[in-house]
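Re-running Nucleoid-associated protein NdpA superfamily to confirm reproducibility after the cluster update. Everything else is unchanged from the original entry.
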Amino acid sequence: MALTAIIAHRLYRHRPEDTVTTQARADLLPMNGKLEELAYALKTQFIRKGGKSYGRFSSDTGEFPFAAWLQDYRQGRLGFASFSQKNLQHFQQLLEAAPSLFDVFLFVIEEQIEAGQYLYLFVVEHESGLYLDADLQLTDSVYLDTANLNLAAKINCADWDAGNSATYLTLMRSRSDKDFADAFGALTGFSDKYDVKTETKEFLEVVENFTQTLDEPVARLTRTRVADYCLEQNKAGKPVAINELAHTLATETKGYEPETFERFVATQKPEIKAEFIPHAGQVRSYVRLSGRTDSLSMSFASDCLGRDIEYDPERDLLMIKSIPTALKKQLLAHLKQHRQDS
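Result of re-run:
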């Protein structure tokens, strides 16, 4: 992680009747190994967490000034510390209207890598704990809780500059406190939510139509590899690239040329972008069907349907053939015990 700037500020309100108090840092944190480890831990948690929203800045810079301030910083009219302090003050104002109690740190981090410039906002809580010191005496400790990161934002500055992206702003708001989470979203000026779920669903429908043109063994392998690739990209926080996926499929399935898949996607759904953000839930549902009630839990590969598993929608009946050996043993043992008891 090539950090170019990092700063942290504190916001807290410990009682409902209190106003929001801030503690602003005047200058950047000095770069060192521990700071880089902290930034890496925060970025890793951000990548791993699901439920992100993708969009852009609001055009209303009067109500949502974050983008204007970021532009001022990038064009040299604001220093990084001043840019972060303006956002601290704005966050404070937004939180005054929320009844939340909190004690958090706002980290603002700039990263410059080969792929471009990125800006991150992380809201980090601290936790208390106990540890044994050098004399084996029990001592109180306070630490930054990076493992439970719930609020964060990432700006892809290169995509923002290009002006043709609707997803350069990524927002993670998994905090259970809705008022606090909404205030954080307003801080960044997030708008135009990108419908990741729908786009992934439409892409997988094209994939399924494509597999219908293949022999069944190749079709099964294609479905699995598409799902694996999409989930790998999702876990890494990267988009699905149709061109890259096509070459991967052609290499690993050996059933067709890369151009075959690309051409099929372009013909069937020309509006699908060359790159898109995958929705993990939709991808998993494509290759695996599952459901549960209070007394029943079931999950199986989707390509079992019509082969080892048949569903009769008229009678709402699921028929399973080729029962797993372990389950079969349990069923027979249970049946035997039931007969003996009766």
